[in-house]
Design goal:
Oligomer: single chain
Structural class: mainly alpha
Radius of gyration: 23 Å
Shape: globular
Number of helices: 13
């Protein structure tokens, strides 16, 4: 017999949903609608008058060579952050899940970085790799390597990728560890009895069973790389040197807040929203096919 939950008060379900609906409307739907509205307008320098210009802002943005360069930088940055944070987190989760002495302490320490704000994590990396006051930065220069991420674009991009990945590793680690602990030990023991080695057991049993977790984290990490890394880039490099670390989300801030180009900035935010929605749809359309749900 199937049981159904019946509310005596017909208004109660709507009251329970109201807070979440209100948050979604106020912090998601309304800002998105405002961005779309402002993307087809141009305001004067004082924000006193606006003019409807159709898709002129989009034409200006998409014809800007610097913007296309920012798209390329964002693609490299997001792919690198997603791949690095997922790979390192999976490796650490596998090691922490094994029977080693002090495993509980290791798990606790690996979770701690997730509590840090992106800007705080960036400041920590700055104090470590700063060429003047950073311990490792000064060491690299003493060893003969010309290290200065403030002047070298490749070094700066590598720096923000490592800092953003390090911040996300803890989040991924929690889910991977939970997924590993949910795998029945009897399955692994049966494979071991059949003669499968550690590598064969991982790729044939463990990793396929972790595919739902991996797919979920792939979507979350991609969104994280596009949106939540602003604080890391802003604190470390300010998008420099020479726009080497300027991502799409940072450019939206730069043009909208610093340069007061609300129309162009809104057009960029709409383009960014479309890109993320398209990538998420592609992941659900094609990548999810390879996910094995137990």
């Amino acid at each position: 017999m199937q049981r159904r939950v019946i509310f005596d008060n017909k208004l109660l379900p709507y009251l329970l949903l109201a807070p979440q609906v209100a948050v979604t409307l106020v912090f998601f739907i309304w800002p998105a609608a405002q961005a779309i509205w402002q993307s087809v307008h141009i305001q004067d320098a004082f924000g006193l008058r606006s003019e409807f210009v159709w898709f002129e802002n989009f034409q200006v943005v998409l014809s800007d060579p610097n913007y296309l360069g920012t798209v390329k930088t964002t693609a490299i940055f997001s792919v690198a952050v997603t791949a690095l944070s997922l790979g390192v987190a999976l490796l650490l989760a596998v090691l922490a899940d094994s029977k080693i002495k002090g495993a509980r302490a290791y798990k606790t320490l690996l979770i701690w970085p997730y509590a840090l704000a992106p800007a705080v994590a960036a400041v920590l990396w700055m104090f470590i790799f700063n060429p003047e006051i950073g311990s490792l930065g000064r060491l690299l220069n003493r060893l003969g390597y010309d290290w200065d991420y403030r002047l070298n674009g490749d070094q700066a991009l590598t720096m923000v990728i490592l800092a953003a990945s390090w911040k996300q590793v803890s989040y991924n680690f929690i889910f991977f560890l939970a997924g590993l602990q949910a795998i029945p030990r009897s399955v692994m023991e049966a494979a071991s009895i059949d003669g499968a080695g550690p590598a064969r057991r991982f790729w044939s049993i463990t990793f396929p069973l972790l595919s739902p977790t991996t797919f979920f984290l792939l979507v979350v990490d991609m969104v994280y790389a596009f949106f939540e890394t602003f604080g890391t880039i802003h604190a470390l490099t300010q998008g420099g040197p020479g726009k080497a670390t300027e991502t799409l989300i940072f450019r939206v801030y730069q043009d909208g807040v610093v340069n007061n180009d609300l129309g162009g900035s809104s057009a960029q935010s709409v383009i960014l929203m479309v890109i993320v929605i398209a990538l998420t749809a592609v992941q659900f359309r094609f990548v999810e096919r390879k996910v094995h749900y137990a």
